[in-house]
Amino acid sequence: MLSSYSYSSLDTFRVCPRKFKYAYIDKVKTVPRVTADTYLGNAVHRVLKQLYSLGADGILMSLDEALNAYAQEWEKLDRNLITVVSDYYTVDDYIRIGREILAQHYESYKPFNQGTLLGAELHLTYELPGTTFKFRSYIDRLWKRDDGVVEICDYKTGQAMTLSTDPRFVQQMGLYQLAVQSNFPQFQEIELAQYFLRKNETVSRRLRPDELDLLEEQFRLAILETLQAEKTDDFPAQEGTHCNYCDFPQICPAKIHRRILDGEEQSGRTQELPAEELRLLTDQYLDKYRQLRELAAELDTLKEQLVTFAREYDVSRFEGDLGKVSVSLARKEEFVTKSQDGRAFAELSSLCRQLGLDEYFSLDPRALMKEVYQRKRLSDEQLKLLEAFIVEKERSRVTAKLDAEPQDGSEEL
Description:
Elements: H1 7-15, H2 17-25, E1 34-35, H3 36-56, H4 63-75, E2 82-83, H5 91-109, E3 116-127, E4 134-144, E5 150-156, H6 167-183, E6 190-196, E7 201-205, H7 209-232, H8 256-261, H9 275-313, E8 317-319, E9 323-335, H10 342-354, H11 365-373, H12 380-387, E10 390-402, E11 409-412
Parallel strand pairs: 1-2, 5-6
Antiparallel strand pairs: 3-4, 4-5, 6-7, 8-9, 9-10, 10-11
Helix pairs in contact: 1-2, 3-4, 3-5, 4-5, 7-10
């Protein structure tokens, strides 16, 4: 179990559990990859901290001084150690983009003394209520505006803009608000703002108390997922564009075979990997898998057609020259699952905790339905609260039996 969590650590688990294991549990020592776009963001953030910290004391750093400070950040690192992910950019391009970002922001916000600065690159800790789970947050800028509203600022140097309704905006900025409210309970009005520096645009939002309560439950469930993964050592590697920024490609199980096929050494391995033999085996498996996928798709289409006929014509048994097929249809109640509706699932989780049903959180909606709801082990009022999270699904079963093969061949849709 981690001593403390952050938005970044939980997001890492969501994107790639294996990276989470390497970085936060095993704490694998490696030479961090320095990507140009990440270093650009860090350099810009450090200069902005200087601008706003000095501005709060009535001191205006000139634009030339700010750009010189930015240039010095790039001089701290050997360019040969910087990785450029894009084929169309160079390190010089990223340096130029950062200069343009700072110059544009400088002209828009000088003399950087708006309102009251409460903190720049502020480090706050926060304990999730009702748990021993601790969070750490790094807030780029916290300030009180002239209208009395406390604004939590986060600077973004990437190209993409985020909507205020995006779950990642809500989770990251909502965690910052929970941390601020925990440390500064006197702040009543809080607004969340992400500054997209390349476009000189700001996306802002205020969260309602019920949205913050839901966030707390979502964070609790997310931490429980990491603890369950740690208990069973279940941290699969998930590949994607995020791999370009990973510090662990040398040991990632999803990358090892490719590296060996590309002629790289099998350093650190206790047993040599028979790369070519595994490549041939992989191709054989994939060929059969492709064939099965095609057959499965055809079979699913035929099953859907049989279910449609069974529903429309009230028929449960079909006969052909090769054998018989039975179709059973039924309506079944079940509680909403996380994959169906993450928000409703978190609300159900919160309600179950209030009802003293923590033992069902995993959460196991099927056990909750079978052991509690269907057996009416709660009061009518409590059952009514649970009822709001029930979804009704049609369950169909198609059973095929070849005349020459007596075994059961049923499949459920």
